[in-house]
Amino acid sequence: MAELDQAVAGLADRSLLVLDDDAALRTRLGRALEQRGFDVRLAGSVAEALDSVRGSPPAHAVLDMRLDDGTGLRVVQAVRDARPEARVVMLTGYGNIATAVAAVKAGAVDYLAKPADADDVVRALLAMGAAPAPPENPMSADRVRWEHIQRVYELCGHNVSETARRLSMHRRTLQRILAKRAPR
């Protein structure tokens, strides 16, 4: 942790925007990143984050993907337009390959699943061109299956019957899978 703190201390601009609609997570993550040396601003909605970016574009941003008033992708674009060199990390509790690709295309440098450790967030923000290290605990086979089903479901416009047909799965089985939480 000391080496991460030193790396943050060496940054010319330590401004950081944290966007999340979960107040407890936003506050906890903001405090943890502040303790590591960042100058943190908090936002609880897309509108609040866009106002913050217009007022003073941050050098770094940690953004939630899905919020009540929109998607974090809008904020990624606003940050990148205002400050092209900004480093943006996306956080989500609904991780899937399609949204990860969309985040990276929009300009995010990394995509982390919630709950993300503050040290992992700092590592992602500071990784300069280096390939990320392989995960310590990769997704289970059940999680990979669930992610694939979620991606096909999104691509089919949340149509259960069409998704079941494309996956060669019974509709009721698919409904049961969709009703459950994501496996670890």
CATH architecture of the largest domain: 3-Layer(aba) Sandwich
- The backbone outline, from C-alpha atoms, is elongated
From the alpha carbons, calculate the radius of gyration and give it in angstroms: 18 Å
Number of E-state strands: 7
Domain Response regulatory: 15-129
Keywords: Phosphoprotein
GO molecular function: sequence-specific DNA binding
Modified residues (4-aspartylphosphate): 64
Topology (SSEs and partners):
Layout: H1 2-9, E1 15-19, H2 23-35, E2 39-43, H3 46-55, E3 60-64, E4 66-67, E5 70-71, H4 72-82, E6 87-92, H5 97-106, E7 110-113, H6 118-126, H7 141-155, H8 160-166, H9 171-179
Parallel strand pairs: 1-2, 1-3, 3-6, 6-7
Antiparallel strand pairs: 4-5
